[in-house]
Amino acid sequence: MNKLLLLFWLFFSVSVWSQDSLAIAKKDSVVFTEKDIIVDTNSEVSQPKFETNFKEKYKSSEFQYEAKITEKSLWDKFKEWLAYWFKKIFGLSNMNVSEKYVEYTLKTLAVLIVCYVIYMITKLILNKEGQWIFGKSTTKKIYTDEEIEKNLTRIDFEKLIKETLTDGNHRLAIRYYYLFVLKRLSEKEIIEWNTEKTNTDYLYEIKSADLKTDFQYLSYLYNYIWYGEFEMTEDSFLQAKNAFEKTLQSLKK
Questions:
Q1: Does the predicted model carry a pTM greater than 0.90?
Q2: Residue 104 falls within a domain, yes or no?
Q3: Which ranges carry the Protein-glutamine gamma-glutamyltransferase-like C-terminal domain (predicted)?
Q4: What average pLDDT does range 41-60 have in this prediction?
Q5: Does one domain contain both 162 and 121?
Q6: Which residue from 8, 101, 132, 206 could staple onto 212, CB 3.0 to 4.6 Å apart?
Q7: What would the pLDDT profile of 57-109 be if each residue is shown by its tens digit?
Q8: pLDDT top residue among 20 and 44
Q9: What are phi and psi of 37, to 5 degrees?
Q10: Whole-Å CA distances, 126 to 113, 133, 141, 193, 220
Q11: Angstrom distance (rounded) from CA 162 to CA 28
């Protein structure tokens, strides 16, 4: 009995649902006729026109959407090589960190090189004699024979000897001592200074026997130390220095 009631209810429900669906379908369907179509007779359709060379406008880089792969230069490859070794030597976490260290290192080296070049150029311009801007000369000028010939009476040999002794250049000091003696002899009109003359020529011009003996000994010391490049000890230099100063003192009177 119950099964018959259930079958009857299902049959009734399906019939009702089918009728409702057909009613909705019929209600939603719309039929259009020719009267419902509106034709626009006022507007005109024109064919679009393009410029002759319109494609040329779109060849610039702004309209290129394909990514171009640029070939790495030798400099880029060199930096990558450095980054690889930085990472390997210093145990850096990744290549990005290593590349940053390489950039910092290269920039630092570039700054140091530029500073060194500027320093050398400035030194050459402002310090032709080896003298820095705010310092004293580290090298003493050695006068040539031509300069001595023109300026013998104006050269301050005492100053030159003092500066040379401060540098410890004993050979150059002996040279200046000997030229200082010639200057004093010329000022006393004992000799007539001339670069063409030899030490023997000056010796013949000296009339005083004692002074002739002293000058002969000083000439021997000068030739042996300056031209013979004799390496002097402190004692031998003091002995020669005292001999020159003794003769200079006698010529000062």
A1: no
A2: yes
A3: 178-244
A4: 67
A5: no
A6: 206
A7: 666 666 666 666 667 778 888 888 887 777 777 777 777 777 777 788 888 88
A8: 44
A9: -90, 125
A10: 20, 7, 17, 36, 41
A11: 126
Token couple for 227: 């031209």
What does the block give as tokens for 237?
A: 């230099």
First and final C-alpha spacing in the chain: 167
Q: Please report, for residues 25, 39, 40, 72, 139, the alpha-carbon distance to residue 33 in angstroms, rounded to integers and kept in the order given.
A: 20, 14, 17, 72, 117
Instruction: Give the chain's domain count.
Output: 2
pLDDT of residue 248: 92
Task: Count Cβ atoms below 10 Å from residue 87 Cβ, excluding itself.
Answer: 19
- Domain membership of residue 213 (yes or no) is yes
Q: Are residues 84 and 160 in the same domain?
A: no
Domain end marker among 99, 126, 153 = 126
Question: Per-residue confidence at 205, pLDDT binned at 50, 70, 90?
Answer: very high
| Integer CA distances (angstroms), 78 to 35, 107, 125, 138, 146, in order | 81, 15, 36, 42, 57
* pLDDT tens-digit series, residues 99-131: 777 788 888 888 889 888 888 887 677 654 444
Which residue range forms the structural domain that includes residue 207? 145-252
